[in-house]
Each structure stands twice: as C-alpha cells, then as structure tokens.
C-alpha cells in the first residue's frame, strides 16, 4: 500500500525501534509524536500522528485548522497520501487533559536553506543528520525539477512544515536506533487516479514522486486502488535509505511491525510492513542491460579496441566470443554489460565502432555482484619496494571470498624483478589475506 512518512515511523516503532529516540525532534520543534495501536482490516498496526504542543497550538490560533489546500506537487503524507479516516477527520486528538492539533500544514513554510539550518541545529547523531539532509536534498531537487527552479530557490511548502520535518528526521533516528546495516524494498505501489492540488488536478503518482523515483534504486508499480499511496516524503526517505528488490530476499526474521496509513479500507489493510533480520552473505543486486551484436567483417584490431573505448561511454564489461555465422563464415558475438540508463549511448558507440546494422538487448535485467574494494600492498624484492593493487571481493556482510592481484601491476613488478607474474600475485594476495 505504498509508503508515507507517518507509515514509516509506525512500522519502525512496531518493529522494535525505541520511542525515546525521537526526543531530539520534540526538543527542537513544538511537536510531539503520538503513537497508538489501530486495526486495519484485522491487522494490528501502529499509527503515528505528529501533534502540536499546547504552546504551538495556542500560537497558531486554532485547534481546528483546515488543510484543504496542497501546493503544486507537494502532496502531503497525512491528507493526500494516507489521509485520516472518518473517525479522526477533526485533525485534533485528546491527549492528556488537552486537545492537541495535528501539525500537518502548521508552522512556517520553509526554503531548502532554512530546512538545512533547522536540521543542523538539532541535537542529532552525525550520521542521522547526514541522512536527513540527504533526504531533504532529494526532495529539493525533485521540487526544483518539477517547477523549473534551482535548489536554492526551492520552497518546500507543506514538505518544509514541522510535521514533514518530524517524519524525515524521525525515520532517520528510528533507523539509527535499530542499527541496521542495509535496507531493501520491494516495488512501491503508487495507487492510481488523480489528486487535487492548488495548481490543478494531477495524475497519481504525482510529479515529485516520479522525479524521485527516477533517481531511486527501487521501482514503482500501479494500484492496487485509485488513491495516492506514495507521497514525496515517503519516496524521498526510501530513495536515500533503500535498495530495490523484486521480491523478499532471504532473511532470518527477528522482528516485524506494521505502520498504519490513515484510511481504513474495506477490503485490504492499509499498512506498510517492516521486517528486521539477518540477511548475511548476500550479494548486491545490480540493475543492468546486456547488449549484443553479431559481426563477421570487423578486423581483430577494431574488436580489440572495443575493450578500451566502450567503457568510456558506460560499458561495465565487454566480451567477444568467436562464432560461426551464415554461409559458415567465421564471426564474433560482442556482448556488453551496462546500466539501463547508459544503454542507448553504449549501443551507438558499438554501432559506430563496428559498423553493425543492429544492436539487440537481451533478457537479463539484473546481476548479483560482490562488493569490491582495492588495497595497495608494498612488496619488497631484493631490497627494492614495489606497490601492487589487490582487489578484494566480499558479500554484504563483509565476508571475503576472493582476493586477486591486478594483473598490470603484477606484470610490471615481474618485468622489473625477473620473477614470474604468478609469484608476484601469490605474494601480494598472501599479504592481504594475512
């Protein structure tokens, strides 16, 4: 059922994050987080409302503020994305001995620079502050792109109000409290239909969500209902913290929780589920496109030069396979791996270099890759020092399963020392393993 800031807060709290981790936001803003247990189609879920404190409510001048106007593509996490049910339309909650007003739409409308200043002034762990600022930058860039402005001129409207800041910084604090190493998400359901905003009627997903999705690692899918299910705030949080996956990865589940949206639907639970557990030993999912072409009239020199020129335009790997073509003529299959967004540019360079009349895209959509890092070791041979680079491959848990010396480095040292390349490789790799 998509994602919104309040749903992320609820899911993380339900999955075990400490409510007290949110106190830096309450200390910096005149708001408080109100968490309650609700039922969504038989699922017990945590609903989080961001409420103004008494002082803020009094300063605002009302406990019953109407929030019918939403600016531009700035759809809001509580009203449009997952709005209040018929049971809590009044936008005020009894809390203790006082009525507390929902923070949505209240407070100043801030520029990007003002939001940055506010976040930097909070008493946040360094990593949390960096994550929150990165999320606001994603939001700012999306809004600037939609409206044809630059980042410094971006005005956040509702997204810069107190409750949206509370959603973003709060989500970062709760993730930090859970101390997770990696976040993945299945495709986000956007909903469908249209949504009314002050600039007019817009299709779902809204323009800002589309802009954010273009930069994110995960994908969108329509439905399952005609309502707005993904908000800019929810999309921006996940764009920064989460990798995309088509299905639930292998996971030894240790905790789970459901964050409730505002709508109580008749036929399906309006919730976002968070699973926390151990997914050790996985490889990283990397979205790719595989391009191929068959050639039978290209010289060996040109084929060899593809290894040098195609990476300049985005190729990640180039393979050239001998084959037999029509009329039993010898030829070659050129296979190139690249990122989807670079496929057209790589295909054009391949066509220009080889003269091929067609480049096809094969069915591969992703690959599983190891995390890679490079370490430089210093070998001593007959009193002389030589630097050699060694590539280290590991899974997402940091377990090393391959160590290999860069061949060009090993060959250069072998030429200088009259030792075999294999001996240089063995010595360099042993230094890394030890």
Automatic annotation (TrEMBL):
Keywords: Lyase, Nickel. One of its GO terms (molecular function) is lyase activity. InterPro entries: Ni_insertion. Residues 60-107 have a biased composition (Basic and acidic residues). It holds the Pfam family Ni_insertion. Residues 59-108 are annotated as: Disordered. Belongs to the LarC family. This is Putative nickel insertion protein.
């Amino acid at each position: 059922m998509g994602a919104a800031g309040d749903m992320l807060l609820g899911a993380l709290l339900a999955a075990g994050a400490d409510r007290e981790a949110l106190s830096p936001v309450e200390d910096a803003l005149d708001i408080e987080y109100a968490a309650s247990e609700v039922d969504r189609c038989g699922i017990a879920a945590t609903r989080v409302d961001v409420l103004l404190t008494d002082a803020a409510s009094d300063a605002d001048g009302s406990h019953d503020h109407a929030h019918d106007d939403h600016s531009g593509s700035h759809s809001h996490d509580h009203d449009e994305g997952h709005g209040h049910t018929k049971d809590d339309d009044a936008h005020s909650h009894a809390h203790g001995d006082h009525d507390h007003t929902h923070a949505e739409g209240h407070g100043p409308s801030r520029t990007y620079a003002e939001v940055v200043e506010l976040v930097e002034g909070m008493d946040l762990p360094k990593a949390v502050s960096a994550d929150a600022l990165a999320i606001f930058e994603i939001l700012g860039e999306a809004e600037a792109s939609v409206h044809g402005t630059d980042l410094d001129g971006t005005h956040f409207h509702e997204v810069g109000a107190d409750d949206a800041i509370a959603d973003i910084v709060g989500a970062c604090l709760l993730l930090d409290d859970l101390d997770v190493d990696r976040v993945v998400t299945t495709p986000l359901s956007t909903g469908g239909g249209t949504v009314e905003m002050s600039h007019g009627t817009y299709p779902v997903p809204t323009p800002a969500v589309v802009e954010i999705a273009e930069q994110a690692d995960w994908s969108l899918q329509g439905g399952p209902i005609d309502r707005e299910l993904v908000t800019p705030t929810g999309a921006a949080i996940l764009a920064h913290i989460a990798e995309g996956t088509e299905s639930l990865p292998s996971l030894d589940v240790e905790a789970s929780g459901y964050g409730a949206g505002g709508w109580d639907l008749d036929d399906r639970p309006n919730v976002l589920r968070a699973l926390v557990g151990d997914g050790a030993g996985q490889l990283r999912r990397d979205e790719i496109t595989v391009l191929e072409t068959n050639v039978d009239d290209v010289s060996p020199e040109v084929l060899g030069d593809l290894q040098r020129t195609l990476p300049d335009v985005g190729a990640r790997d180039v393979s050239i396979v001998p084959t037999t073509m029509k009329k039993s003529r010898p030829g070659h299959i050129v296979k190139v791996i690249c990122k989807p967004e670079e496929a057209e540019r790589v295909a054009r360079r391949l066509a220009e270099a080889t003269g091929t009349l067609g480049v096809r895209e094969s069915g591969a959509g992703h690959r599983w890759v190891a995390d890679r890092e490079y370490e430089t070791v210093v070998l001593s041979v007959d009193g002389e020092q030589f630097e050699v680079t060694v590539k280290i491959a590991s899974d997402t848990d940091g377990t090393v399963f391959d160590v290999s010396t860069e061949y060009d480095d090993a060959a250069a040292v072998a030429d200088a020392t009259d030792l075999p390349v294999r001996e240089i490789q063995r010595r360099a790799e042993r230094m890394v393993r030890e």
